[in-house]
Amino acid sequence: MGSTDVNRRDLIKRAAAAGLIAAPALGALSACASGGGDNDSKVAKGEKTKDNPLGVNKDAELDFVIFDGGFGTQYGKDAAKIYEKNYGKVKLTATQKIRSLLQPRMVGGNPPDLVDNSGAEEMDAASLIDKGQLTELSPLLDAPSVDDPGTPVRDTLLPGTIEMGQYGDEKVWRLNYAYTVYGQWYSKKLLADNGWEYPRTWDEMLALCAKAKKKGIAGWTYAGQHPYYIPFTLYPFIGKIGGPEVIRSIDNLEPNAWKHDAVKSAFEAYHELAAKGYILKGTPGLDHIQSQTQWTKGKCLFIPNGSWVENEAADTTPADFDMAVGPVTGLDGSDKMPFGTLWAQAGEPFIVPAQAKNPAGAMEFLRIMLSKQSAQNFSRLVKSLSCVAGATDGMEMSPGLASANQALKDAGDNVLNPRIFDWYPTLHREQIGSVVAELMAGRMKPAEAMDKCQEYADKTAKDDSVKKYKHA
Asked: Given 3.40.190.10, 3.30.70.100, 3.30.750.200, 3.40.50.300, which CATH number is that of 181-343?
């Protein structure tokens, strides 16, 4: 998002209104771009050597567009300085309007070399791939890593990173750089000051919310204007209750996937938060920043979010807040997965357009970003994990980052990786998002919500214009 997507970044979209036009805008882009422009303007290839394994033209400029969101842009600027020591100048453009800025360039056959494809205006990667608009990244993954020439880049990445760049086959179309841990974010200090324990079961969650309510503290808040934040905890809650196969069935658009008992239990649990008045008043009208601010002010206990939140909410977070992420609270002892189960995955996708003039330079830039030096710098700057395994070892970490790192270690193999959010972004963001918004606001009963989610999923499954994907 995060993130994100969630995504973040990607996990992370910033405006529902912008999301509503994402699919048609991208469709028009892809239809035009697939036949526009040419490759005659590509720069000449450089000589491949031990120090230049991708054969970068050392005199060619690199055109890089970076998303200026929760992670900022400094980490990209720092990587650019390293790149420029051995290669050409980097033209770095920062924006929050990825699609608005790049659509004319993609249609005109003159895209940047490297794009941090994130934010509310993230381009639909599935559509770009389907229309042949992205460069496949195997040359980057097979290249020697910066830190150990005997180890290919692909072997330095955290589990799931490569899979997040795959869409139905073994080819890798994007590199998701941030490693986001999603969950119930909270203040350790707030719980400790009141002698409260982190809830492991839903009965414990309701009991804790009741205690907090007596002290004028709400149990939960969330980004009501962007309800696709709610699945940051809802999806892993469903998976914890019913097992990873339930998440896979939802991702695969299987008939009656949303009718599973695990979905029913999760929807009933979340509906109970609203029914008992445990959600911060006014939450449905809050955006992501406003909800985070209410949370950092101590107005509520929990917020569903990704690990980018520590950096994004830094301006309003008290010095002694002691921010932490907790794994999803389970239902009860019948859950199929243990306490500690997380949704964690690589986000913040970087892509190399197929018509980029300097694709080798773009992949070399990513190779530099995947060095431990750049990965540590990223984590230090933005308080988030990168996709580089072991990059934070021995590093002093902020509270939220340390918590995310520990939660990931504690989860072990119990890490869920939903794909509905990036395989079918319209379904996830606009349709499922609208349903859970109504559920959490107490305006829709669980049974109706299940029916509506299944109706939307079935429509997507039957829509021949939407490319379909399946878990292996």
From this structure: 3.40.190.10
